[in-house]
Design goal:
Layout (H helix, E strand, L loop, with lengths): L1 E4 L2 E3 L1 E5 L12 H8 L14 E13 L5 E14 L2 E9 L3 E3 L3 E6 L2 E13 L7 H9 L2 E5 L5 E12 L2 E8 L5 H12 L1
Parallel strand pairs: 9-10
Antiparallel strand pairs: 1-2, 1-7, 3-4, 4-5, 5-6, 6-12, 8-9, 9-11, 11-12
Length: 191
């Protein structure tokens, strides 16, 4: 995602949370508002059978190309599960402008749902890109993430929309859902 702050482009988005779930049951709207400052969309289960498993409070820090902090905010991320398959539902409210990845897959009322998929290559911090890696990155066939113990490749897909100043994203990594099924879940949230 490309994000823009009042004073320039956001180059890095750092997020952190506890390894232990902050929410073991679906929280109340007031509980989340107290934790992060705004009311999220709360849904116990989706029509396709994915149900709330747990959730976390996320601490976010947006930084510019000089590593200066532009904006800090809290958000939430909820995991939904069905037969061992997980969908992550994150909700971020921030002041910087974000350009959503992908293309419009569906419009519900006046809300566009963007679908995006890519292959992610998670590599160690000292990994040197090969010529093939560089070509794949330039063509958009691969996205690189750094900090892994060893090289891991995963298929990532998301359905994202913005409503009332909050960005909502359903994310699946190496999941079982088709793109259409993920977008259908986003449609439920928009409604």
């Amino acid at each position: 995602m490309t994000a823009f702050a009042a004073n320039g482009i956001v180059s890095n988005w750092f997020s952190s949370s506890s390894a232990i779930a902050d929410y073991k049951t679906l929280p109340t709207a007031q509980q989340v508002k107290n934790d992060i400052g705004y009311i999220p969309i709360l849904i116990d289960s989706f029509a396709n059978g994915y149900t709330f498993k747990d959730g976390n409070i996320i601490n976010n820090n947006l930084k510019d190309e000089n590593n200066n902090s532009i904006e800090k905010f809290k958000s939430v991320s909820f995991d939904y599960e069905k037969d061992g398959d997980t969908v992550i539902f994150s909700q971020d409210k921030y002041n910087s402008q974000a350009e959503l990845q992908g293309s419009v897959a569906k419009t519900v009322g006046d809300t566009d749902i963007y679908y995006y998929s890519y292959t992610n290559k998670f590599v160690p911090a000292d990994y040197t890109l090969t010529d093939a890696d560089k070509r794949a990155e330039a063509s958009g066939d691969l996205v690189f993430s750094y900090g892994a113990a060893e090289v891991e490749i995963s298929e990532v897909q998301s359905a994202t929309f913005v409503k009332d100043g909050t960005q909502y994203q359903l994310l699946q990594i190496n999941g079982k859902l088709s793109g259409d099924e993920l977008v259908k879940m986003a449609e439920e949230l928009v409604a």
